[in-house]
Design a protein that fits this description.
The chain is mainly alpha-helical and 281 residues long. It contains 11 helices and no strands. It has 3 domains: 129 residues, Helix Hairpins (Orthogonal Bundle), CATH 1.10.287.1080; 50 residues, Helix Hairpins; 55 residues, no CATH class.
């Protein structure tokens, strides 16, 4: 089999990888749940390549993300649910329907007219979706209700922020940041109790409550938690890299260095950063 620019080749490759007798053992044993983390990871890597302006990486990462789409579609086809062709048909149908002013099906020629048209189409699609899901016996719908406009596909921090913002619109919110700090302390106490009990499920539940409360304080002080955490991640990378560089210059390795030595270099990195910031002021 040879590489190709034709999408059909990628579909053939995935079919071969999933073949129960001659395929790849790792690919064969995967499921929607086991592949899901890789799908999310690939989407983030696409985002990272865009942020860095790296077109070479972007081409590569888009291919990895496309593979995820083909992988999921292949598993769905094996289960008798839908195929890659059905995925393509669904999105092309949606795009043509949502842009009748482009595909000669509408006279909408102003931004306001297009907006009205778009809203009407979206409502029609929602009705069709409800009917389709009903026929398949799917009754639970996270897209319904007051919080339905908040996509579950968002990163967890972003979803938490948007859920809180949505609930706040009807008054379900703290009036000031201080009570949220009390709530955070309460959640920390509950997490400590769960840790003492050794209940892993309870620990996970309480940790989620604590993170949700921390997101809430970020919202009240007008700080996006996703961006705040990204900043901390960048800071951690920078300081840890400093540890690595110092150890390397001294002929040591990360594996051989003691925690005390690494902490010492970490604190030195913090002092350097503070001095640089003070100088910039």
């Amino acid at each position: 089999m040879e590489p190709s620019k034709d999408i059909s080749r990628l579909i053939e490759i995935m079919a071969a990888l999933r073949h129960p007798e001659t395929g790849c053992p790792w690919d064969i044993e995967q499921s929607f749940e086991t592949i899901k983390p890789y799908t999310i990871e690939e989407a983030y890597e696409v985002s990272d390549a865009i942020e860095r302006g790296d077109m070479d990486d972007l081409c590569d990462e888009l291919g990895d993300l496309l593979l995820q789409v083909v992988f999921h579609a292949r598993m769905a086809e094996e289960a008798g649910e839908f195929s890659f062709g059905d995925v393509v048909n669904a999105i092309t149908t949606k795009m043509i329907r949502r842009h009748p002013h482009v595909f000669a099906r509408s006279a909408a020629d102003t931004p306001d007219a297009v907006k009205i048209q778009w809203d009407e189409i979206k409502q029609a699609e929602k009705r069709e979706r409800t009917e389709r899901r009903s026929k398949r016996g799917i009754t639970e719908d996270f897209k319904g209700g007051f919080l339905g406009s908040v996509q579950r596909s968002f990163p967890a921090l972003t979803e938490a922020l948007k859920l809180q913002e949505r609930a706040a619109k009807v008054g379900f919110d703290w009036s000031a940041p201080e009570p949220i700090l009390d709530k955070i302390e309460e959640e920390i106490d509950e997490l400590r109790a769960a840790l003492r009990d050794g209940d892993r499920a309870k620990v996970s539940d309480e940790l989620g409550d604590l993170i949700f409360a921390v997101v809430n304080i970020g919202r009240h002080v007008k700080t996006d938690p996703e961006q705040a955490l990204r900043g901390t991640n960048t800071k951690f990378r920078r300081r840890f890299s400093h540890i690595e560089n110092v150890l390397d210059a001294e002929g040591e390795t990360l594996e051989a260095a003691s925690l005390e030595r690494m902490e010492e270099i970490w604190q030195a990195a913090k002092a350097i950063e503070r001095a640089v910031m003070a100088g910039a002021e």
